[in-house]
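Sequence in, structure out.
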Amino acid sequence: MNDNLIETDNFTWNFDVNVFKLLGSQLISDKFTAIIELVKNSYDANATEVHIDFIDSHDPKNGKIVISDNGFGMSKDDIQNKWMKVGTNSKRNTKFSPKPFNRVLLGEKGIGRFAIEKIANHIILESQESSKNILHKLEINWSEYEKAIKTNIPPLFTTIKNKYSALNPLSTNEIINQGTILHFNSLKEI
């Protein structure tokens, strides 16, 4: 027994709220690379089609970008425990996409999704799995993170809430059947 010992403890890693910028706009070199990172996710989801729509994208305030695919979509659990989990190992444990394509997975570090921060301040993710009658919706407002950075004692990155909802796709105007749609609003640049 050490008579000089006053206290022992265990520490865990924490992430300052500013980490979203470090992994997004500061790590991703430009807006084109950001789009490519997101298209890689569609490829990994066995999408055969990816559509990128630029709607008044010359006007950052009112412009929008929509990236949609017909991949296998995500469940609530996928969104919460894979897409929203930094550095997830889900693609490191599985090297290939499901049949019929068995594609070599491109996303492996678990941070490419932070490309969304490079593109816009407000993002809505909508995803629906094949033959499931639930449309999963996640809303991320990066301005909430920006506000948090400016507070006297900024919260941890992991404590900021992002709104999730599950909807009956038949009651929405957008029936996607299967796949994922990313809506980018309040663009960061032309």
